[in-house]
Amino acid sequence: MLKVLGRSTSANVQKVVWLCEELGLPVEREEIGGPFGGNDKPEYIALNPNKRVPTIIDGDYVLWESNACISYLASKHAAGTWYPDDLQERGDAHRWLEWSTSTLAPAHTPAFMGLIRTPPEKRNPDAIAAGRDNFSAQLAIVERYLDGREFITGSTITIGDMPLAILSYRWFNLDIEREDYPNLKRWYDGINARPAFQKHVSGIPLS
Ligand SMILES: N[C@@H](CCC(=O)N[C@@H](CS)C(=O)NCC(=O)O)C(=O)O
After folding, report:
1. What is the pLDDT of residue 132?
2. Domain holding 38: CATH number?
């Protein structure tokens, strides 16, 4: 059975287990990272020298970096659906995976860390406000792109939607002001109606 090493509260682990649930792939998940620790143990570092979660083990194949994991799993088990056959649609999906890691995730970090991981007396309101503004500015790009599109690459959900949806869960649930982004809201509500997303992402409180 596929093994997923990583705690359920990690956004990057959530991508993997959400996809596995959607595909009906049984998973044996081990709590590693955060309060569980274990990611600095030699046996984990031997699998993943980056000391981060997730790591997946498929038989004798070990893979880490969450976007590589979902690309691998979707191309193995969901070619033509979650992993598009059409090369341009596939390129689009990969573009949004890259952009989520390079731009959207870092933009969301100050507000997320400031409000969820920092006790109220230690918060820096200016940094949180500036972070919120940047998070919003990046999501405005997604808002415009979703105009006239059901999902980020077109008419069906793909891996390209996954990190965007997980970070959007944070946008819609952090205690922050939110601009009205109707395309983002319509797209997010559709994804949030999926039982697998609720089970592995939106049903898990931010922590
Ligand atoms: N680019 C990596 C980032 C992995 C990452 O930063 N994971 C975080 C959790 S979301 C982590 O391992 N943090 C340390 C910990 O949980 O102990 C990926 O996408 O897999």
Report:
1. 98
2. 3.40.30.10
